[in-house]
Amino acid sequence: MISAAQLASIPSPSQGVWYVGPIALRAYAICIIVGIVVAVWIGNKRFVARGGRPGRVTDIAVFAVPFGIIGGRLYHVITDNQLYFGEGRNPWNAFAIWNGGLGIWGAIALGAVGAWIGCRHYKVPLASFADSVAPGIAVAQAIGRLGNYFNQELFGAPTTLPWGLDVFVRTPGGVPGVIPADGNCEFPTDYVKAAPEVLCGTYQPTFLYELLWCLGVAALVIWADKRFRLGGGRAFALYVAAYTLGRVWIEMLRIDPANHFFGLRINVFTSIVVFLGAVLFLYLRRHVTREDPALVWGPDRPGQRGRADEPGAPAGAPSGESADGPAAAPTAPADEPHPADKGPGTG
Predict the structure, then answer these.
(1) Which terminal residue of the chain has fewer beta carbons within 10 Å of its beta carbon, N or C?
(2) What is the pTM of this model?
(3) What is the pLDDT of residue 305?
C-alpha cells in the first residue's frame, strides 16, 4: 500500500502556449472555450428537462457569453489595476485577455445582463435560464482553472504536502535561467520551462482545489434541484452560495499580489458579501416553486391557442407568457406528453 508520503508532487506543464506557424494556441483560451461549450451543453439539457425549447440556451448564450467575458475582464483590471497602470506598466495589456485574467464576479454580473437581454428577446423566464445553467457554469469554472495550471499562475503558499505543485523557472525560448531574485515564480505566459530545468518552488495547487470544489458544487446543485425541484432562481443562488464558500478559503491560500479591503484580499471580501446575499435570496424565496413548463418554453410553444397578440384572438385572451412574471399558460395538447411527466431527466 502506497503511503501519502510516497506520492509524487504535481509537476507544472512546461509551457502554456504552442505555435502552429504564426498561430498561437493558448491553453488558457482553449480551456475557456471548452468550458463555455460544456456549460451551454449542460444548460441546454437541463433547460429542456424543465420544459424549455431545445437550443434556447444556445440562443441566449449568444447574448450572455460576450457580456460575461467583458465583465470578467473589467472586474480583473479594476481590482488588479496595479498590473496594468502606473510606472513601468503597459496599459494596453489590459486588453490582452489571452494572457489570463477573468474575474468571476464581473463575468456573472455582466453575463446576467446579457442573459436578461436574451431572455427578454425570446420571452422566457430569466430565473429558469439561470437555474438551468448554474451547474454548467461551475463545471466551466473547473475547466477554466486548468488554464491557470498551464499558465503556471495563481498557486498558493509554499508547501511540503505530497500533492504540492512543482513550479519551474520559465524563460524566453527555454534558455538557461535561474530563480528570480524576488522569488516570484510566475512568468509571462509565452515563456517555456528553462533547460536545464530549475525548480522554483513547490506550492499549494489552488487550481486543483478550486477545480475539485467546482465539480462538487455542480453535483450539489444537480442533486438539490432534483430533490427539491428548485425554481425562481434558487438553483442559481445555491451555486453562488456554495462556490463563494469554497472561494474564501482557497483564495486565502494564494500568494499572488492582490489588493485588500478591510484587511482581506478583495476576492475574499467580495466572496463573503456575495455568499451572504445568496443565502438571503435562498431564504426569502424558499417557498418559490418551479416555473410552469409552458412558460419556460415561451410563446411559440406548439399547441398554444388564444394568444392576445395573435390576429383574430378574442379580446381579453391571455398572452400566454411574459418574461417579467407568470401569465396564464395553456395546457399541453393531448397528443404531446407534458414535459414534467417525461421523468427527472437532468434537471
Answers:
(1) N
(2) 0.84
(3) 52
